[in-house]
Design goal:
Layout (H helix, E strand, L loop, with lengths): L9 H52 L17 E3 L4 H11 L25 E4 L12 E6 L8 E4 L17 E6 L2
Parallel strand pairs: 4-5
Antiparallel strand pairs: 1-2, 2-3, 3-5
C-alpha cells in the first residue's frame, strides 16, 4: 500500500507566489494613480479658492495685492510662490483683508511652478504696464497637474501672455485675469 503525501509541490508554491506578486503590482499601480488624481482634484479646488480670494481682495481694495519690494520669491519680485517665503507675504495680505483665512499650498509643494516637474502654486501680480494695466490690475496663477491635461484660461481683456511662454514650459496650467 502506498502512503499519500500531503502538502504542495514546489511548482504549485511558485505559481501562487507569482500570482500574488502580479496582484500586488496591479494594486500598487492603481493606488499610485489614485493618489495623483486625488492631488489634482485638490489642486483644482485650491486654485478656485485662490481666485476667489484674489477677487475678494480686489473688490475691497480696487487692486490685486501688488508685491512691494523683495517678496523672497524663488522666481522674481513680481511673484508669490507657495514653496517659499513669499507665500507667507501673500497670505498675510489676503488674510489681513479677510479675503481668505489661510492660503492653500500645493499637496506636494516642491520647487516653483514654472519649472518642469515641480509642483507649487505661483501668483504673478503686475506692478504696471502689463497689457496696458496699471499696478495691481492683472494677475496670473500658475500650477501643474500630475494626471490632468493642462488648463489655460483667461478673464478680462488681456489676450497676450505678458510674462512669456518660458514660464509655462513643461505643461504648466494657468489662469489670467486683468482689469484693463
Amino acid at each position: 500500500m502506498r502512503k499519500s503525501k500531503s502538502g504542495f509541490t514546489l511548482i504549485e508554491l511558485l505559481v501562487v507566489v507569482v500570482v500574488i506578486g502580479i496582484l500586488a503590482g496591479i494594486t500598487l499601480i492603481a493606488y499610485n494613480g489614485t493618489q495623483a488624481r486625488s492631488r489634482d482634484a485638490r489642486r483644482k479646488t485650491d486654485v478656485a479658492n485662490i481666485i476667489k480670494a484674489m477677487e475678494l481682495y480686489y473688490s475691497d481694495n480696487g487692486q490685486y495685492p501688488v508685491p512691494t519690494g523683495a517678496t523672497g520669491s524663488s522666481i522674481d519680485s513680481n511673484w508669490y510662490v507657495s514653496s517659499d517665503n513669499s507665500w507667507t507675504m501673500l497670505n498675510g495680505l489676503l488674510a489681513g483683508a479677510e479675503a481668505i483665512d489661510s492660503l492653500p499650498s500645493d499637496p506636494q509643494n516642491t520647487g516653483n511652478p514654472t519649472s518642469s516637474g515641480d509642483h507649487a502654486y505661483g501668483v504673478y501680480v503686475s506692478k504696471g504696464g502689463t497689457c496696458g494695466a496699471g499696478p495691481g490690475q492683472m494677475y496670473i496663477i500658475v500650477w501643474r497637474y500630475e494626471t490632468l491635461q493642462k488648463e489655460q484660461s483667461s478673464a478680462g481683456n488681456c489676450n497676450t501672455n505678458p510674462i512669456g511662454d518660458s514660464y509655462f514650459s513643461g505643461g504648466a496650467s494657468y489662469y489670467r485675469n486683468s482689469r484693463v
